[in-house]
Amino acid sequence: MATFIVLLGPPGVGKGTQAKILANTKKLAHISSGDLFRENIKNQTELGKHAKSFIDKGELVPDGVTIGMIRERLNRADCKPGAILDGFPRTPVQAVALEKMLAEFKGQVNVVPYISAPEAVVVGRISGRWTCRLNGHIYHQMFNPPKQTGVCDIDSSELYQREDDKVETVTIRIRVYLEQTIPLVEYYRKSGKLIEINGEQAVEQVSKDLYSAIKNHFM
Ligand code: ADP
Ligand code: ADP
């Protein structure tokens, strides 16, 4: 049986950072919907062009497009043992679609770590975030600086600040999160799969808490 882990939490709380660590240690695929959109934008695909108009405004990309993109990703061979889903689902419609997709693989969402931190903390994290152009590796100018300013430690590509990380767009993204994604917290809590993680701690401590929360859920 495969293991599927859904990471929930506000923008900037550290989902991508934790997903990358966990994917490495547990040899699971890391599916980041934001990274997939950014890859499509970079490659100027039709999906990318369509998604960009929403992402630039801080709004969610419509469910149909997003679900189709994730379905295609889940079908790739590296998802056989399971995956960590980071940024998807973000709406109840997406959550229901995910269940249907996983049922096709004879799988299900096993556990949903919900990483939370106060708004001021996530805003501070987003405003110092630097992202790697080639593979989306994540840095923070204070909390996780690269060895050399502006250069990724892992693949030496350029680091950039995401257009949607500017403060006006972040305010909209947080509002969208509260309106459209918070309902998922209750949805997964009712299903008994939600495990709350204090995201207001150093990366290493969040990783430890995350690991102990999920360690009994591997198939
Ligand atoms: P998300 O995927 O939830 O948007 P990221 O993993 O991209 O969040 O992290 C947002 C920013 O916060 C990045 O700059 C990252 O380096 C930094 N960060 C992540 N986790 C922590 C933490 N526990 N403490 C301090 N900074 C963190
Ligand atoms: P963050 O890690 O800071 O939360 P992401 O990289 O996950 O940001 O997402 C960036 C943007 O991509 C979102 O603001 C939204 O426009 C779009 N996006 C990502 N995932 C989804 C999703 N599941 N549904 C709709 N839009 C999405």
> What radius of gyration results from the CA coordinates?
16 Å
The separation of the N and C termini measures: 6 Å
Helix content: 40-55%
Structural classification: alpha/beta
Q: Strand tally, please? A: 8
Largest sheet: 5 strands, parallel
Individual helix count: 8
Can you list the ligands bound to this structure? adenosine-5'-diphosphate
The fraction of residues assigned to DSSP E strands is 15-25%
Inertia-based shape: globular
The stretches of 5 or more residues where confidence is low (pLDDT under 50) are none
Strand order of the largest sheet: 2-3-1-4-8
Oligomer: single chain
Order of helices and strands: EHEHHHEHEHEEEHEH
Residue-averaged pLDDT: 96
Overview of this protein structure:
The strands form 2 sheets. The protein has a 5-stranded parallel beta sheet, sandwiched between helices. The protein starts with a strand and ends in a 5-residue tail after the last helix. It is built from 8 helices and 8 strands, in the order E-H-E-H-H-H-E-H-E-H-E-E-E-H-E-H. It is an alpha/beta fold and 219 residues long. The protein is 47% helix and 16% strand. The protein has helices spanning 15-26, 33-42, 46-55, 63-74, 92-104, 119-127, 167-190, 203-214, and strands at residues 3-7, 29-32, 82-86, 109-116, 129-132, 138-140, 159-160, 194-198. Helix 1 (15-26) crosses helix 8, helix 2 crosses helix 3 and helix 4 runs parallel beside helix 5 (92-104). The structure holds adenosine-5'-diphosphate (2 copies). One adenosine-5'-diphosphate binds at residues 11-12, 16, 33-34, 37, 54-55, 58-61, 66, 87-88, 90, 94, 164, 173.
